[in-house]
Hints:
By secondary structure, the chain is of the alpha/beta class. The chain has helices at about 5-15, 55-70, 80-85, 105-115, 145-155, 185-195, 210-215, 230, 250-260, 275-285, 290-295, 310-325, and strands at about 20-25, 35-40, 45-50, 75-80, 95-100, 120-125, 130-135, 160, 165-170, 175-180, 200-205, 220-225, 240-245, 265-270, 295-300. The protein contains twelve helices and 15 strands. The strands form three sheets. A six-stranded parallel sheet has the order 12-11-10-13-14-15, sandwiched between helices. Strand 10, helix 6 (about 185-195) and strand 11 form a beta-alpha-beta unit. The protein is elongated and about 70 Å long. The model has no long low-confidence stretch (mean pLDDT about 90).
Amino acid sequence: MLDILTRIRQLVAEKEEFAMATVVKTWRSSPRQAGSCLVVTKTGQMIGSVSGGCVENAVVQKAQRVLATGHSELAKFGVANEDAWEVGLSCGGEVWVYITPFYTEDLWEKLDDALDGNIGTALVTNLSDGSQTLIEDILPESELKAVVNGIYQKRSNSLLSVEGVEYFVHSFPPKNKMILIGSAHITAELIGLAHMYDFETIVIDPRDTFAHKTDFAIAPDTLHVNWPQEVLGDYALDNETYAVILSHDPKIDDEALKILLPSGVRYIGALGSRKTQAKRIERLKSYGFTDEEISKVKGPIGLNIGAMSAKEIALSVIAEVVKVKNGVD
């Protein structure tokens, strides 16, 4: 849903009536994962998707009925489904789509506040009666709360059954963090892409001229005009953190690496040629880091796409970061 969040907010502000279709289960080959969402307005406008275009037309028709009746529906599409054949489902998989009128005003306010404040939450939908709640509002000692917590901790979207009732858990964890050491042209280009892929962006550069003179088309979420060692300790350097070293100044980069290498960050990439990386490795060894620790630094940074310009380098970096995030070797 995060990919269409801006448009959802616009529709709510305009008091537009619309339905929300959410993929709650898939089987075998399916173009969209559980949690993928499609908004359908009363006029038939579609925002988002629940397949590669295979079942959207049928979903729109069902969404119009949901809007007219106010009753949610669970629709299954697959190779043996007449509706699916009509709209051309040919991938050989199956997809279950839950279609409901948009959330109540109170629920949406709570969810939107959590998303806007980058506070993790999960939306829990009772597929029997259509009722919905957030994870924090479930009774703390209930079996449902325990099972939902388990799904949320895995950052997954999943069906579950508790006491004979089926629920769908749609997880909204806090954004992954991208920490960018050094403010420059590549930094500005990378921030635009990082925001597109829903990263929280944090820029650290003690050089006032670089920090305040860089032309950011999209501003970072946070800009620190400080040395890395002065502010990195304020952040959880965990498995949801990706660090990009871009200052090209060893006095800055190395101070960041001294903190990042022993931490639990998911990714560390450093700008520079192979020659620059070789010199960096020698310096890190002189600081006492082992070969295993140093091997965490990906350098030269980014996937090899023959990048030349700042835009292309930024593209190669975000591609490598997303590859690591998605667990692709």
